[in-house]
Amino acid sequence: MMRLWGRASSINVQKVLWCLAELGLKEGKDFERIDAGLQFGKNNTPEFLKMNPNGLVPTLEDGDTVLWESNTILRYLARQHDKVGRFSTDIKTQYESEKWMDWQLGTMWPVLRVVFLGLTRTPEAERNYQAILNSYQETNRLLGLLDQTLANQSYCSGNQFQIGDIVLALCVSRWILLHNSFPQQTGERANLKNIDAWLKRLEEETCVNEIIEKELNIVK
């Protein structure tokens, strides 16, 4: 049985849980999840650090394969465990998805992370509200690029749901929840109608509602 280390509230663990759900793999039946990180600890134990020297979640054990880095875990699961053809193996579709996964990790999340950590992990007296505002407004701009793409196609890579949609949608969810919880600190949220339609499509056609939060939990 596969073993997934990580608390269910972590955005990066949620990526993996969503992908597993799309593949029809059930917690307790097909994989075991172990709470780790933040209030649960365990991620700095010798056992964990032997698997993942970064001391971060998620970490996936699948037989003698041990992986960390959430986007890599998604790629592995889609290739190794997609027995039902949930994700396209067409090379064009696959790499259109891949580019958005790299964009999420290298471009969008580093910007959104500033406002996310600033408002959920930083004590109020230590918050840099100008940096938080700038971060949120720059995220508005960046997500406008995704919105432009979604004007002409249903999903990030075309007209079929891919793992790239998973990593993007979880960031977009936090972008929405941050504004809903801290509207004065974030400033206005951009009106991105194509992203709104895409999220609705995901809610109707995928397992996102099993994973995504409806309220912003301050402890992540």
Describe what is shown at a glance:
The chain has eight helices and four strands, in the order βαβαββαααααα. With 220 residues, it is an alpha+beta fold. The protein has two domains: 2-80, Glutaredoxin, CATH 3.40.30; 91-210, Up-down Bundle (Glutathione S-transferase Yfyf (Class Pi), Chain A, domain 2), CATH 1.20.1050.10.
Helix fraction by DSSP (H/I, runs of at least 4): 40-55%
Main pleated sheet: 4 strands, mixed
Number of strands: 4
Tell me the domain tally.
Answer: 2
Query: Which CATH class of the largest domain applies here?
Result: Mainly Alpha
Strand order of the largest sheet: 2-1-3-4
CATH T-level fold name of the largest domain: Glutathione S-transferase Yfyf (Class Pi), Chain A, domain 2
- Whole-Å distance between the termini? 27 Å
**Number of H/I helices:** 8
- What Rg, in angstroms, do the CA atoms define? 17 Å
Strand content: 5-15%
Description:
By secondary structure, this protein is an alpha+beta fold. It has two domains: 2-80, Glutaredoxin (3-Layer(aba) Sandwich); 91-210, Glutathione S-transferase Yfyf (Class Pi), Chain A, domain 2. The chain is 53% helix and 7% strand. Strands 2-1-3-4 form a four-stranded mixed beta sheet, covered by helices on one side. Helix 1 (11-22) links the parallel strand 1 (2-5) and strand 2. Helix 1 packs parallel to helix 3, helix 1 crosses helix 6 (163-181) and helix 5 packs across helix 8. The protein is globular, with a radius of gyration of 17 Å. The chain starts with a strand and ends in a 15-residue tail after the last helix. The mean pLDDT is 96.
